[in-house]
Amino acid sequence: MVKKSPLDDPANAAHAWARYRKIMRLLMFVTMATVTIAIGLLYAYNGAVSVHYYIAAALGIAFTMLLGGGLMGLAFLSNGTGHDESVDNKLPDADELWSPKDDNQS
After folding, report:
1. How many CB atoms lie within 10 A of CB 34?
2. d(CA 38, CA 29)
3. Is the CB of residue 20 less than 8 Å from the CB of residue 77?
4. What is the distance between the alpha carbons of residues 75 and 23, in angstroms, rounded to a whole number?
5. Tens of pLDDT along 76-90?
6. pLDDT, tens digit, for every residue of 2-33?
7. Taking a C-beta distance cutoff of 8 angstroms, is the pair 83, 2 a contact?
8. SS3 sequence, 22-68?
9. Which residues contact 22 (CB under 8 A, 6 or more apart)?
10. What is the SS3 assignment for 78?
11. Please, is 81 exposed, middle or buried when counting C-beta atoms within 10 Å of its C-beta (0-12, 13-18, 19+)?
12. Could you tell me the end-to-end alpha-carbon distance of the chain, in angstroms, rounded to an integer?
């Protein structure tokens, strides 16, 4: 029987998602500061280049940081609430998968 997930309880889920939103807000501020510093450094070392260069750099940095941070936040949310323990994983062991079968031998 599959165990019930702690995220099925509305109070636990509300607390977990509030914590996730708090982490994402912090990540957004860190991302904006990083993009600002990176654009400043790019301008200091490269001068006035095409505006597309700065837009691409800002979007690349922001997208990478927010996507990576968001996915890590979801992993922390899943593990921190106990949701991972409620998953029923009935996969066979590696020995059962990769050991030779004795069925063909007489």
Report:
1. 14
2. 14
3. yes
4. 12
5. 888 777 777 777 777
6. 677 777 778 878 888 888 899 999 999 999 99
7. no
8. HHHHHHHHHHHHHHHHHHHHHHHHHCCCCHHHHHHHHHHHHHHHHHH
9. none
10. helix
11. buried
12. 38
User: Are residues 85 and 31 in contact, defined by beta-carbon separation less than 8 angstroms?
Assistant: no
Amino acid at 18: A
Asked whether the beta carbons of 67 and 28 are under 8 A apart, the reply is no
Instruction: Name the residue type at position 64.
Output: T
Return the structure tokens found at 96.
């059962």
User: For the CA atoms of 66, 68, 70, 72, what is the dihedral angle to 10 degrees?
Assistant: -150
Alpha-carbon span 30 to 36, nearest angstrom: 10
Helix, strand, or coil here: 87? coil
> Contact, 23 vs 80, CB < 8 A?
no
**Unique residue bearing structure tokens 């979007």:** 59
CA–CA separation, 4 vs 22, rounded Å? 26
